Amino acid sequence: MKRGKGLKFVGDSRIQSYEKPKLNRDYSEFPGRTEEFYPDFLLKEWLTGAVFLVGFLCLIVADPAPLERMADATDTGYIPLPDWYFLFLYQILKYSYASGPFNVVGAIIIPGLAMGALLLMPWLDTSKHRNWKKRPVAVSLMIVSVAIIFYATWESVAYHDWEQQAEQGKIVFSNLDSDDPVFNELIRTNCTSCHGGELTGASGPDLVTPDLDEGTVKAFVENGTETMPAFKDTLTEDEIDEISQFIANLELTDKKNADNTGEK
Q1: Which of 242, 239, 241, 79 is nearest to 162 (CA)?
Q2: CA-CA distance, 160 to 194, in Å (whole number)?
Q3: Does pTM top 0.70 for this prediction?
Q4: Cis upstream peptide for 39 (omega within 30°)
Q5: Is residue 12 scored above 90 in pLDDT?
């Protein structure tokens, strides 16, 4: 072989240089083992997707998602509940080390570490073995992660007050006029945080369903109760009268005659 002729450098080695013909291989060479991407492969994908979509639509029709009352950002008494696949994160935020002053731990640090470990897994586990028994580190991390997710999800479901959840989101039709200045300027500021955005109850009792007279409401607003603060030092007598009259006039009604549907 002549020195340097017909050779090419690959790293620090030299190999014989040659041209390999580029041939478009026919699918007929591999019968039953290959198929064209379009339309054969895509057709099967679309059919599979259509079957899944029809099944999903049937589930929605058979068991539709429950509707709750109209959302109100000013209703601080409403406790939202995330979808089931986020319940484990919701539960973590209830623990003392991840809530309150440590909320950043449960909301950012713990999920951030979990996502970071998942992204770095190809570098953290460089084993070439495919048998799970020969990859103890990766398998152990996965088992621990799945166990934490399952336990936190179960705990969130087991200890959640589902009756209160149903009550706070229940659609109640009433003659509550959300455009009334008394509601917007006085009740929304002082009452909805405890009694709900439509006064149908939250941490405080329902004010629509009971038949409350103006004098009873005024006594509660002025003097408070064991769990309710008194407002006689923070509201004027005229403001207390307006609130008492508004609440005393509340009553349940049907959807057609309701003022709280937002369909005015």
Answers
A1: 79
A2: 19
A3: no
A4: yes
A5: no
> What is the rounded CA–CA span in Å between residue 237 and residue 221?
10
Rounded Cα distance between 212 and 206, Å, is 11
Instruction: Write the single-letter amino acid at 7.
Output: L
CA distances from 250 to 160, 191, 238, 243 (A): 31, 14, 19, 11
What's the pLDDT tens digit per position in 212-258?
A: 888 888 888 888 888 888 888 888 889 989 999 999 888 888 877 66
Which residues face 10 on adjacent strands? 13
Would you call 239 exposed, middle or buried from its count of C-beta atoms within 10 A (0-12, 13-18, 19+)? middle
Q: What is the pLDDT of residue 24?
A: 55
- CA–CA distance, 171 with 250 (Å, rounded to integer): 15
Amino acid at 30: F
What DSSP letter does each residue of 195-210 carry, written as one string?
Answer: H-TTSS-SSSPPSSSS
68: exposed, middle or buried (C-beta count within 10 Å: 0-12, 13-18, 19+)? middle
Quick one: pLDDT at residue 157? Answer: 92
Instruction: Give SS3 for 15.
Output: strand
**Cβ neighbour number for residue 192 with a 10 Å cutoff:** 21
Instruction: Please spell the DSSP secondary structure of 222-245, one letter per residue.
Output: HH--SSS---TTTS-HHHHHHHHH
How large is the average pLDDT for residues 8-24?
Answer: 55
205 CB neighbour count, 10 Å cutoff? 17
> How many whole angstroms separate alpha carbon 12 and alpha carbon 3?
16
Compute the distance between CA of residue 70 and CA of residue 78 in angstroms, rounded to an integer.
Answer: 12
What is the gyration radius of the CA atoms in the chain, in angstroms? Answer: 33
The C-alpha atoms of residue 146 and residue 82 are separated, in whole angstroms, by 19
Structure tokens at 255: 């959807």
